[in-house]
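To make the argument concrete, we let one protein speak, a sequence paired with a row of structure tokens, as a model reads it:
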Amino acid sequence: MNFAAFRYFNEVARARAIRRAADRLHVAPSAVSRQLALLEHSFGAPLLERTNAGVNLTPAGELLERYTRRMFRELDEVKESIASFKTLDQGTVKLHTMEGVLSNVLPRTISAFGERHPGISFVVSSRSSDMIAEALISNETDIGIIYNAMVRPEIEVIVDRADPVMCLVAASDPLASEAAVTLEAICERRLALPHQHFGLRQLFDSAVTARKLRPINVVETNNLELPRAMAVTGSCVTIGPVLAAQRDIEYGDLVAVPISVPTFLMVRSSVCVHKDRTLSFAANEFLKFLRNNFAHSEGEDWH
């Protein structure tokens, strides 16, 4: 076995076709086939099933694919870290985050960090809490910002902050002047809510079910911006953390009213990483910056 054989196999596994993989590698298909044959001989098991449409991975091939995918990802991280030692200001940070952070906290953070490290770039994806956790576990992302993170043995919480679930209403809504609102009162209103795979919605449904309430769900979406936009119009109310609605609250379009549900008041937002993953230099530098600033109140400067 040699490095080229693993590289060729990894590309075939991604492309699901030998010819397509050969084109990407800029080698002849026969060269790829020879390396695959060497791997299969070395492992004593078939790795691929040839079909008219391309190739499928056998169980042994799926196992090897997970290994090579991790190996080449870690090799890229090593290359990036070594390169960063030259200037201490190169590299890419991959972030998976809850959607609300994109409109307020994350732009401030990346902007402030970029003033110190202009050579570092970012790849940011917006996902539900469950999907962020899976991305961390599968090493698809460096850092995850998760709302109401569930305890997972593979995930380490670096820093968190209190972010209670609030009732978000238009400034003109009668509920806006209340010191707190009950879940019963919320369920009597027309609601715009995120889809059930969001941790926020799961928390809401659990509380509603426990109280045997029947909410009036008018809008259900996999986008967290739409429920807030609906609430701004006054036609619906929604729920969420202040962190996610900070911009609308600062503009005076929304008011966040506490909800009289103890579990809602205990929710936190967390900056998380894979417990056993070694971050690249760029990702580690940003993680330290984020850790030092994340727990600060929204009114403070990011430095």
